[in-house]
C-alpha cells in the first residue's frame, strides 16, 4: 500500500475501475462472502465520499466506499474496499480504523445506530499468497484474550447501583467513588461519617485532597458548610485546608452554601480581610479559581493577591 504522494499505476487503475458503480457491483457479487452477499441489495449500491477519513489516514486510503441497502430493509451497509500492492501486516488494523471512521461519519449525519461496515482488501503484491492474517485481533500478543475483550460487553463500573458498604472497602478509590455516587443527591453532611472514616485511613494524598475539596465546593451542597468542613478538619489528620474553609464560612456568615456569596455593601475593612483569608486558602493548596469564587475577590483584590 502506498501514499497518495507516490501512487503506483496499480493503485491508480484499481481506483479508476472500482469507483464505477457497475464494476463495483460485479466485484461485490463475486467476492463478498456468501453470507454477506445474501443480505446485500447490490442494486442499491452508491459511491460515497471518503473525505471523513482522519487526516493522518488519508495518505494511506484508496477512497473507495460504497453504501447499499440490506435485502428487504431500509438499513444501509457500507463496504470499504482497499487496494494493496505490497504486503502490510498492519493492514487489518488500518481497515478497522477506516471502518470506525465510516461509522462515526454515519453518526455525525444524524443516525442513531451504527452501520455495518464491511472492509475488503484487494491484494496483488509480489509475495503470494498474502503472508499475514486478515484478522486484526491476531495482531495482539494474546489473540484469544483480545477476542474475549472485543467480542463481549466491556467492563462496567456503575457506581450508581453499588452499595455504600461495598464502596467503603475499595481502599484508595473509595472516597472518590462515594462522593461521585452521591454528589448530586445528598447533602454532604450525610456523608460526613463515611468521609471521615476514609480520610483517617490516610490513603488520600495532599494533591488528591485538594482536588476533592474543589470538587465538593463546586459540585456538592450542604446546608451547614461551616459545620461540615469544621467536622472534617477536626476529625481527620489532613484538616488544614478544611479548617480554613470552615473559618471562612464562619467569618462570612455563610450558613446556606457558597452560592449566596458575600453580601454587597461590606465595609472597606472587609476587603483586607477577604485578601487575608484568600492568602490562607492559597497557602493550604487551594486553587486560585476556587479561592476567588469563595471569597468573591474584586478584580483589584485578585490582582493584588496573585502578585
TrEMBL record:
InterPro entries: Rpn/YhgA-like_nuclease, RpnA, Transposase_31. GO terms for molecular function: double-stranded DNA endonuclease activity. Residues 8-209 form the Transposase (putative) YhgA-like domain. GO terms for biological process: DNA recombination. It comes from the Bacteria. Coiled coil: none annotated. Pfam families: Transposase_31 (PF04754). Belongs to the Rpn/YhgA-like nuclease family. PANTHER family: INACTIVE RECOMBINATION-PROMOTING NUCLEASE-LIKE PROTEIN RPNE-RELATED, PTHR34611. This is ISNCY family transposase. The lineage of its organism: Bacteria, Pseudomonadati, Pseudomonadota, Gammaproteobacteria, Enterobacterales.
Amino acid at each position: 500500500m502506498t501514499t497518495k504522494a507516490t501512487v503506483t499505476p496499480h493503485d491508480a487503475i484499481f481506483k479508476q475501475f472500482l469507483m464505477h458503480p457497475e464494476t463495483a457491483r460485479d466485484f461485490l457479487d463475486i467476492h463478498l462472502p456468501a453470507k454477506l452477499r445474501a443480505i446485500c441489495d447490490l442494486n442499491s449500491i452508491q459511491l460515497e465520499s471518503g473525505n471523513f477519513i482522519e487526516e493522518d489516514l488519508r495518505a494511506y486510503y484508496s477512497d473507495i466506499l460504497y453504501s447499499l441497502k440490506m435485502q428487504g430493509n431500509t438499513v444501509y451497509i457500507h463496504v470499504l474496499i482497499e487496494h494493496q500492492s505490497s504486503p502490510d501486516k498492519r493492514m487489518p488494523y488500518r481497515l478497522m480504523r477506516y471502518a470506525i471512521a465510516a461509522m462515526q461519519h454515519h453518526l455525525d449525519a444524524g443516525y442513531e445506530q451504527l452501520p455495518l461496515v464491511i472492509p475488503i482488501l484487494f491484494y496483488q503484491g509480489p509475495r503470494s499468497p498474502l503472508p499475514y492474517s486478515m484478522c486484526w485481533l491476531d495482531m495482539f500478543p494474546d489473540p484469544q484474550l483480545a477476542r474475549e475483550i472485543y467480542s463481549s460487553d466491556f467492563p462496567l463500573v456503575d457506581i450508581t447501583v453499588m452499595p455504600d458498604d461495598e464502596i467503603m472497602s475499595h481502599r484508595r478509590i473509595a472516597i472518590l467513588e462515594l462522593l461521585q455516587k452521591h454528589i448530586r443527591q445528598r447533602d454532604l453532611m450525610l456523608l460526613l461519617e463515611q468521609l471521615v472514616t476514609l480520610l483517617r485511613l490516610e490513603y488520600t494524598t495532599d494533591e488528591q485532597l485538594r482536588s476533592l475539596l474543589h470538587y465538593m465546593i463546586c459540585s456538592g451542597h450542604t446546608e451547614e458548610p461551616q459545620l461540615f468542613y469544621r467536622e472534617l478538619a477536626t476529625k481527620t489528620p489532613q484538616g488544614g485546608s478544611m479548617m480554613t474553609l470552615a473559618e471562612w464560612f464562619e467569618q462570612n456568615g455563610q450558613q446556606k452554601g457558597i452560592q449566596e456569596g458575600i453580601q454587597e455593601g461590606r465595609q472597606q475593612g472587609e476587603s483586607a480581610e477577604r485578601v487575608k483569608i484568600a492568602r490562607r486558602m492559597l497557602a493550604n493548596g487551594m486553587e486560585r479559581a476556587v479561592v476567588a469564587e469563595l471569597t468573591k475577590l474584586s478584580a483589584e483584590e485578585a490582582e493584588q493577591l496573585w502578585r
